[in-house]
Design a protein that fits this description.
Helix content is about 50%, strand content about 10%. The protein has about 400 residues and is of the alpha+beta class. It has a single domain, classed as Cytochrome P450 (Cytochrome p450). A hairpin with a 2-residue loop joins strand 6 and strand 7. The structure holds protoporphyrin IX containing FE. Protoporphyrin IX containing FE binds next to helix 12 and helix 16.
């Protein structure tokens, strides 16, 4: 009889450079040994696709308990930590029904497939403008020069943030993103809360202007909802606008960066994509699956629930390792192979259930346009370095830089 594999949980350390550089071999070992794995901090790691998919859709699970935020990193209780809990609790991401549905429905119209389709020409224009600035260059950093600015310009325009203020959001969203990562320190929480205060103050002033002079933008629409008494307080409105800015920026930039890296490492597929543009939507799905920009999400069991024969006690947290589920060989044949023509590619990169990513249509459109514009503008595009480094985050997986030769 085959001995059952064992797994040293010490290898699953979100702060370790080994895991950040390449989590996938570690996920495979974890999934084989303990697909539902208890951790010393009381949360359970889930690494099989079928289990992840069913938990996300299961009403016996709710959002995580924000009072436990920081406990895994054993952070001391500070005013910033308390403020972070309160602010996150006002976003739809950390709300349960019925409050969740009310807030989500106020925002969701702006992200419907029809609205996103109507934005495509403008997204194309923004992508082309950014690439125009690189036309004379031989080399570029695709993260700094393209993948970051594109989504921030799109979401800032949707909200109605004036162009001259966009640069502010880059710093704010980078600091804010630390709140939904595993690796936390008091210093990171303090920085995130400073960014949160500055963003909220900025948006408060912008909202005041929009109240006097409404425009055809998302901020004005949310203010109208608040003023109609649609049960959206100003604090909730501001918290959810901050969520849209953060969620719409970092994640999409990482999809463009991780996706372009995979395509440049698989030149045959990049060439095929140039020749057969109808493969573009499938190629972006494969980028989302292969190197998912969000690696994990959490839920809390409202009752005792058996997952794969293992009893998860009521009130426990489960961490659904999206990146591991998306490489599960029981769901995706030959899961470590990057294949832009893969069929039945229903990955979990956008989560699932009631919190399924609100911006999924927009993120897909932006990534499709970004990859298409790059591939056609620079036919000789290639990596300009041997070693690639990922940022020091586990959950939001993205590159520090992506140096390329353009010509
Ligand atoms: C590649 C890009 C993106 C990825 C991989 C991504 C991923 C995710 C995931 C995994 C969740 C679900 C979290 C959970 O179930 O716990 C989520 C939720 C969410 N995302 Fe995205 N996202 C992306 C882009 C965007 C964009 C562009 C926006 C909007 C501008 C956005 C807005 C949201 C919002 C508002 C939620 C919360 C939905 C809710 O709680 O009902 N995301 N996203």
């Amino acid at each position: 009889m085959e001995p059952s594999p064992t797994f040293d949980l010490g290898r699953f350390n979100p702060a370790s450079p080994e895991l950040r550089a390449n989590p996938y071999p570690i996920y495979h070992l974890l999934r084989q040994a303990m697909p539902v794995c208890p951790t010393p901090v009381g949360a359970w790691l889930v690494s099989r696709y079928a289990d992840g998919e069913s938990i996300l859709a299961d009403k016996r699970f709710a959002t995580i308990d924000l009072n436990r935020l920081g406990q895994a990193g054993q952070l001391p209780e500070t005013p910033s930590l308390a403020a972070a809990r309160a602010a996150m609790g006002r976003t739809m991401l950390f709300m349960d029904p019925p409050r969740h549905g009310r807030i989500r429905s106020l925002v969701s119209k702006a992200f419907s497939p029809r609205m996103v389709e109507s934005l495509r020409p403008r997204i194309r224009q923004i992508a082309e403008d950014l690439l125009n600035t690189l036309e004379e260059e031989n080399e570029a950093d695709l993260i700094r020069d393209f993948a970051y600015p594109l989504p921030v310009i799109v979401i800032a325009e949707m909200l109605g943030v004036p162009p001259e203020d966009r640069a502010l959001f880059r710093r704010w969203t980078i600091d804010l993103a630390r709140l939904i990562d595993f690796v936390q320190s008091t210093e990171a929480v303090d920085r995130a809360m400073k960014a949160m205060e500055e963003t909220a103050e900025y948006l408060h002033t912008l909202a005041w202007e929009r109240r006097q002079n409404p425009q055809d933008d998302l901020l004005s629409a949310l203010i109208a909802a608040e003023e109609r008494g649609d049960r959206l307080t100003e604090d909730e409105m501001l918290a959810n606008v901050v969520l849209l800015l953060g969620a719409g920026h970092e994640t999409t930039a990482n999809l463009i960066g991780n996706g372009m890296l995979a395509l440049m490492k698989h030149r045959d597929q990049m060439e095929r994509l140039r020749r057969e543009p109808h493969l573009l939507p499938g190629a972006i799905e494969e980028c989302l699956r292969y190197d998912s920009p969000v690696q994990a999400t959490g839920r809390r069991a409202l009752e005792n629930v058996a997952i794969a024969g293992i009893e998860i006690p009521r009130d426990s947290h489960v961490i659904i390792l999206i990146g591991a589920c998306n490489r599960d060989p029981d769901r995706f044949p030959d899961p470590d192979r990057f294949d832009i023509t893969r069929d039945r590619n229903e990955h979990l990169a956008f989560g699932g259930g009631i919190h399924y990513c609100l911006g999924a249509n927009l993120a897909r459109a932006e990534a499709q346009i970004a990859v298409d514009s790059l591939a056609h503008r620079f036919p000789k595009l290639d990596l300009a370095c041997d070693a690639i480094e990922y940022r020091d985050m586990f959950n939001l997986r993205g590159l520090k830089a992506l140096p390329v030769r353009l010509a």
